[in-house]
């Protein structure tokens, strides 16, 4: 006879999560971020209180930013551990939808557990309930469906018996990895059920390393042997596979230079002689020349996003062929690529064994050295009269670079800094964390906290603009009370400087991005230092680049976040590196500046190659 234990569904949920283990003997779901409301406080809230430190609960300030912290944690842990996030029904749940989309795009595991409507429907419509006039089964949580890898609604206690294993199987699957939403009806959370005791036995979740198909291997080996100018594009899959050292050995053994996407940057230190930096829209000059010449492009764990490919105008060699090493056939076959489906580390090892002593023809190594000389110039301390001088974003990056150590992690998400950091930041191994799949403003502060939770030995430097800081900064208070230290470099250019420059580049008038061009009565005078201090952070304003360097070093011993504000030039771009990006320009009905912009657009669009 099957032994059972009577628990509420919420108690069963947290008890089961607490015994899902990694091969290293740690909980896969380390803990739960929670903001309680009427849709989860009595059920999930009481269950979390009861289980205590066996599945710890952490309080945040905003449902979206709690989830951002969870995402940054999972990314830093290379998807080997994760967090859950719970909210009430209604706005608490929909606040998390943006974060779910971010996790989905970046292929990162997060378990979302929003409260849901009453399964019994007796009190309908309950507070915050969205009613669909044509479908009685719909709730606000259905908004999660397109932005998670697996969605389930827990409308009966026994649904957990199938939903929970499905959820973890997705989150630990290297090919299908992504966020999961278990919409938990609030009455069902409190319903009791006789669960099989066996359901709560500890389970170890192993992350697979799928072997590549031998036929695909042979095809790609032949392509590499025939190539005269091959290049490797290193994506985030290299990091998630733990293939950093294997990639470095592969390119050295076979004499193939490589470039790094935003997600893949930092897998190999910048000093590596085969590392030509970033490709595409935010690419280095040497990387983009290399990609333009390439007759074989070998993507490793990359989605070939438009920034990486210059909206598919970067690879101009008419003989160019595309290979995609990826875990999922969906990604591996994009743009007519020759697919090589398998784990990045295993696949590179198999390729190298078959290639034996093959080495590609020589490449232009000097262009890489010239590029790094350019980087040194644009990031150098300005040799000007500093009276009324505002530093550029490149000079801010240079200041942080000069005091960085092997333990420094530069992180960012949106605005000017992601592109500037990708092209200019000289990353140590593991020294870069960028959320650029979704480019979500407001990720930065919470993301920095998540990185530090996952890697307490690291120095986390969060680059954030004033616009993104204004969108989401409240997890500073969470980091203060939990004593999670990191350093925020807040560049204040008095508006959305990045999009303002893009607006101008696309032939548009300066409008509604900078405060000066917005429909306001007076210019705002925001005291970012005072604001950060009000949440308990240590905050100061740097008077110049040298002062910024000094303040970053001084922040290191603190056990709370440090916010360093510095005013920057909103107008100047990098003026180095870069490539075209497909941002549509109006075809008709505009002034002469738009006509010229459209002519430029048409010339570049004519070079797009999206399929071979």
UniProtKB/TrEMBL annotation:
<dbReference type="InterPro" id="IPR000399">
    <property type="entry name" value="TPP-bd_CS"/>
</dbReference>
<dbReference type="InterPro" id="IPR030817">
    <property type="entry name" value="Myo_inos_IolD"/>
</dbReference>
<dbReference type="Pfam" id="PF02775">
    <property type="entry name" value="TPP_enzyme_C"/>
</dbReference>
<dbReference type="InterPro" id="IPR029061">
    <property type="entry name" value="THDP-binding"/>
</dbReference>
<dbReference type="GO" id="GO:0102481">
    <property type="term" value="F:3D-(3,5/4)-trihydroxycyclohexane-1,2-dione hydrolase activity"/>
</dbReference>
<feature type="domain" description="Thiamine pyrophosphate enzyme TPP-binding">
    <location>
        <begin position="415"/>
        <end position="566"/>
    </location>
</feature>
<dbReference type="InterPro" id="IPR012001">
    <property type="entry name" value="Thiamin_PyroP_enz_TPP-bd_dom"/>
</dbReference>
<dbReference type="InterPro" id="IPR045229">
    <property type="entry name" value="TPP_enz"/>
</dbReference>
<feature type="domain" description="Thiamine pyrophosphate enzyme N-terminal TPP-binding">
    <location>
        <begin position="59"/>
        <end position="129"/>
    </location>
</feature>
<keyword id="KW-0786">Thiamine pyrophosphate</keyword>
<protein>
    <submittedName>
        <fullName>3D-(3,5/4)-trihydroxycyclohexane-1,2-dione acylhydrolase (Decyclizing)</fullName>
        <ecNumber>3.7.1.22</ecNumber>
    </submittedName>
</protein>
<feature type="domain" description="Thiamine pyrophosphate enzyme central">
    <location>
        <begin position="218"/>
        <end position="351"/>
    </location>
</feature>
<keyword id="KW-0378">Hydrolase</keyword>
<dbReference type="InterPro" id="IPR012000">
    <property type="entry name" value="Thiamin_PyroP_enz_cen_dom"/>
</dbReference>
<dbReference type="GO" id="GO:0005948">
    <property type="term" value="C:acetolactate synthase complex"/>
</dbReference>
<dbReference type="Pfam" id="PF00205">
    <property type="entry name" value="TPP_enzyme_M"/>
</dbReference>
<dbReference type="GO" id="GO:0030976">
    <property type="term" value="F:thiamine pyrophosphate binding"/>
</dbReference>
<dbReference type="GO" id="GO:0009099">
    <property type="term" value="P:L-valine biosynthetic process"/>
</dbReference>
<dbReference type="InterPro" id="IPR029035">
    <property type="entry name" value="DHS-like_NAD/FAD-binding_dom"/>
</dbReference>
<dbReference type="GO" id="GO:0009097">
    <property type="term" value="P:isoleucine biosynthetic process"/>
</dbReference>
<dbReference type="GO" id="GO:0019310">
    <property type="term" value="P:inositol catabolic process"/>
</dbReference>
<dbReference type="GO" id="GO:0003984">
    <property type="term" value="F:acetolactate synthase activity"/>
</dbReference>
<dbReference type="Pfam" id="PF02776">
    <property type="entry name" value="TPP_enzyme_N"/>
</dbReference>
<comment type="similarity">
    <text>Belongs to the TPP enzyme family.</text>
</comment>
<dbReference type="GO" id="GO:0050660">
    <property type="term" value="F:flavin adenine dinucleotide binding"/>
</dbReference>
<dbReference type="InterPro" id="IPR011766">
    <property type="entry name" value="TPP_enzyme_TPP-bd"/>
</dbReference>
<dbReference type="GO" id="GO:0000287">
    <property type="term" value="F:magnesium ion binding"/>
</dbReference>
